Hints:
The structure holds three protein chains of three kinds. By secondary structure, chain A is an alpha+beta fold. Chain A has helices at residues 31-38, 94-102, 111-126, 148-154, 165-179; strands at residues 9-16, 19-26, 57-60, 63-66, 79-81. Chain A folds into two domains: 9-85, Beta-grasp domain (Ubiquitin-like (UB roll), Roll); 94-184, DNA polymerase, domain 1 (Orthogonal Bundle). A five-stranded mixed sheet of chain A has the order 2-1-5-3-4, with helices on both faces. In chain A, a hairpin with a 2-residue loop joins strand 1 (9-16) and strand 2 (19-26). The radius of gyration of chain A is 18 Å and the shape is globular. In chain B, helix 2 (34-40) links the parallel strand 2 (25-28) and strand 3 (47-50). In chain B, helix 5 (89-97) packs antiparallel against helix 8 and helix 11 runs antiparallel to helix 12. Chain B is globular. Chain C has a domain at 23-31 and 445-548: Aldehyde oxidase/xanthine dehydrogenase, molybdopterin binding domain (Aldehyde Oxidoreductase, domain 4, 2-Layer Sandwich). In chain C, strand 13 (285-293) and strand 14 (299-310) form a beta hairpin. Chain A: Pfam families: Fer2, Fer2_2. Chain A: It comes from Streptomyces himastatinicus ATCC 53653. Chain A: Residues 10-86 form the 2Fe-2S ferredoxin-type domain.
Amino acid sequence: MAPAPSPTYSAITLNINGEKHTLPVDHRTTLLDALRERLDLTGTKKGCDQGQCGACTVLIDGRRAVSCLQLAVAAEGRVITTIEGVAEGEDLHPVQQAFLDLDGYQCGYCTPGQICSAIAVIEEHAAGWPSAATQDVRPEAGVQPLTAEEIRERMSGNLCRCGAYVSIVEAVAQAAEAAQPPSGGSGDGNGATEAEAAV
Amino acid sequence: MREFGYERVHDVSGAVALLGADPDARYLGGGTNLVDLMKTGVERPARLIDVRDLPLDQIEATPDGGLRIGATVTNSDLAAHPDVRSRYPGLAQAVLAGASGQLRNMATVGGNLLQRTRCGYFTDTAKPCNKRVPGSGCPAIEGEHHNHAILGASEHCVATHPSDMGVALTAFDAVVHYETADGPGELPFAEFYLPVGDTPHLETALPPGALITGITLPPAPVAAHSRYRKVRERASYAFAIGSIAGALDVRDGVVHEVRLAFGAVASRPWRAHAAERALTGGPATGEAFAAAADAELAAAETLPHNGYKVTLMRNLVVAMLTELSEEAVR
Amino acid sequence: MTTTTGTAAVTPSVGTAHTRVEGREKVTGAARYAGEIPFADLAHGWLVVSTIARGRIRAVESAPVEAMPGVLTVLHHGNAPQVDGEYVGLLGKPDPTVTLFQTDRVPFAGWPVALVVAETPEQAREAAEALVVRYDEEPHDVAFSAAHPGARKPEDPSAETEKGDLAAELAAAATVVDAEYTTPEEHHAMMEPHAATARWDGGRLEVVDSNQGSMWVADELAKMFSLDLGSVRVLSEHVGGGFGSKGLRPHQVAAVMATTVLHRPVRVVLTRRQMFSITGYRSPTVQRVRLGADAEGRLSAFGHEALSLTSTVHQFIERSADYGRAMYDADAHHTVNRVVALDVPTPTFVRAPGEAPGSFALESALDELAEKCGLDPIALRARNEPEAGPVSGLPYSTRRVIDCFEEGARRFGWADRDPRPGLRREGRWLLGTGTAAATFPSNAMPSTAAVTAEADGTFTVRITAADIGTGARTALTQIAADALEVEPSRIHMRIADSDFGQAMIAGGSMGTRSWAWAVTSAAKELREQLALGGAIPEQGITARSNTAEAIGALAQKERHSFGAQFAEVAVDTATGEVRVRRMLGIFAAGRIVNPLTARSQLRGGMVWGLSMALHEEAIRDRAFGSHVGPDLAGYHVAAHADVPPIEVGWVDDPDPDDPVGIKGIGEVGIVGAAAAIANAVWHATGVRHRHLPIRPDRVLLAGTAPGGDVDA
């Protein structure tokens, strides 16, 4: 027997940058489209709409995610932070400031996603998460420094067609350094990019 | 994308009951594959049953020294878990080699097992594909197939399974647990994926409506000495053109136990049983490694543009086993 | 109050690092791109493109779709407004791909056949996917190859240049290189998809767009829709990358048609997959290079034949063989660009059109010649420095290519290089280094600008420039500040509004040079007016410029940017993986206005070269005539993990005939970079890779033997 058709719209409440937004959504609406088309939060960018570029990266429950593959209705109850929510008032987040100072962008379209991703990369590394660039993933090997190679691997889900990668890695390294206690740094003050070859 | 209903479920039996009532419904985990396929029109469900809030997000050590991993554990949590990294480092590496940090935060273990091929004909509804539309044909065989299968394929489909995680899971003899309206069940990994044959659209042995609840990894001391290596067309954030999970226990120069599995060469993560048999009990030498690779790859059937994968996998077997054996000596 | 310029001692801004003036907006997400400006009562358009590669549309079954929820209209060749496709715009007659829905013919897969407009994007998308279009399919031909019988020399007389007897010189040469190189179909793949919102506002058509020239797009739309240019306004404040693709494209035309029919604002955003068929791309190329040299490595014979493809509806030629016309001389010198028309979308300008694929072939061939002559590749180039343009005979404005090589060699550590291939191993990696030259034309095009002295002591510059990520907005701010002798903070730079008048587009590495000239000229005029003294009225005092006459008076010279590219690679021949370990580019590219953003732009070009060398390749299925995997998972561009430390430097090289000394840096960064990497792969492995991209399967099958050269 055919099931009763279920509604294709829901009224949901999204918690974004500390504010609650209640809105009816078509279940097809992605979090990305809800942000951009419904809530006028256009800082989150649509590059591919298929999870293949990272431009739409936001933080969901503190973790980075691509909002183009996240249905808005399934994001209800989660804590969402977008690029509009990472600065403290007029004070830029250290990652934002580093991108600005070191020219970690050109056209700027991938930039909000890169910045949200970078904020999470620094936290993931601090939490001890390994990456594909980590030589020894066993916990007994300890936490390895956030080298340029580690940053590159961890940031690889964010494409930048202008090719600003080198400055982005420098910016992430600088912001990560600033976020760490002085002894736990990943190298000298120039960031890690000059430190070693890539392979 | 057609309109669809959405339900968020909080208990397994409720999820199974909802899906059983609606043949056009799909379980929604992280959505990283399903939502993409809905956008391209490959999947057109009438209802999504969101299983992310099910109480299946734990990784627990089993009394015998294995692990039980819930179906909604994210790839990130799996790769970061100390027991996974310590007992099955090759699994952690495999997960970390897949997708991107963002996608690993969203994707779930259950969803990973059920992800679909990235074959460019499968994902294009304007083209034929036996996996998507049974009987419509497989244009990859005459067309673009440089990253298609060399093992276990058929004239009906030469697509590969895209999972990295699955390659390690098959090496470590994972068991898939599921729930149906008739109660729970389980499938060893070797039986989980169906042979391609003339039914490439039938991918797993899961009963209709089944919900994957988790996997167990049996204890495997050899897995503590395991690795994963992936070759792809850019250094990160790309699917494999060939990958390998390996674990090796060498005692006095003799292979005591070995695990080998290949990715991106078949419709499923490919356990290299023939290579393992050839190696076990024999010398841990480069010649033996190469001979074992040849034993496994003897069954390879190549197309005009994917024959390099035979060489690639042979080289990966030798490199992986050489590395593992040298480390064991150290 | 009285506004002053140049009274206080102001440090010149040009030549100093300046963070982007719009930087804060970009890092906070406040910068709004084309699809992000809110409009009341906005409707959403979704294009439907053909699934067949050639034939006729038999029927567009729009009735069922018009009944779907939220659908407002379905436009197609049966009901769309008629437009003029015969006008002549900046680049000649329009590509029929943009004159939407005027015919039932389908000339390639992905051709726009309908536009569905609905209240929401979700409704528009579903209706567009549900629209049934019936076709009468015809056989198609998309098989590009050197042997294609349709290959021909275009009528354009500049397609071929010839002097001397190439065959005779080759026969007499001590050393000959004769090799074929190929490059695949490559795409712009900028991060921001094409997007436009159109509306009628008080009798004027307003289009909020993402483009490389708002006046260019306004002019094309006015001509196509038979409107006065004054009644069309195009705005393009922030642009998420262009690279040659963001001119007039189907999305703007679709939005204009729909808003005209519906009398409400309509936005059309292309999907990533649609972008692969209707926004242009770089044609694949097959190039034969023949070089002959004497015993000392002096070129006596130079032949470069290039073949590219175009569509059957519009001609665009990838002019790969132009590269050598300004770069290398020989007694016998022959270059020709041929083309073949196939049932494929129309290609277009992609970053360094011609020079990018042309330099791959030629700078690879020169490396082969250096090897055969037993010469260092830099020494070979130094030995072949021409005194004047090899084809034109004109003098160079400046040509400091050897200075770039010398500075690069010093910084890269080239002197320590053992030229023999296949000798350096580090673990599983074979290591090698390579180099190549770079060049790109330096031109300027007439532009207008207005500079206003405001009553509050600031200055407003208005120019229809575009900042597609180049840093033009910031560079022009610095240039205006210096021209007015004030701090950059006193400049309001307003760009990308067609109401500001005619100006060059962001293209051909000519944007910033052309705009800077106009801004400098208007600022000079304003200073002369202000020098007369008196109060500034409320509306300010405005001076205008038009550089047409000054640019027209420029002496004929060979004007180019130059550079030297260096790369170090690691190759695992067991897996075919190639990793670039470091790159260095030294450029002689005119006066560098802003070292911070210039470094980014040149580096970005080098990343493109890396991506071209190792990753990029769009694959077209011959049976269906359409792409396989046309998205950012199927079409790989370099990701973070692929890109090593890249150093960029420059030698002092102001253009003596430019008011600011600018030459242009948008494209020279990609030129030669792929060849430097391919040459490094040879140095690592002993194998010449003449076909891009240098994919793992190709490296794996070629192995390390010199006989393994990848020729087919």
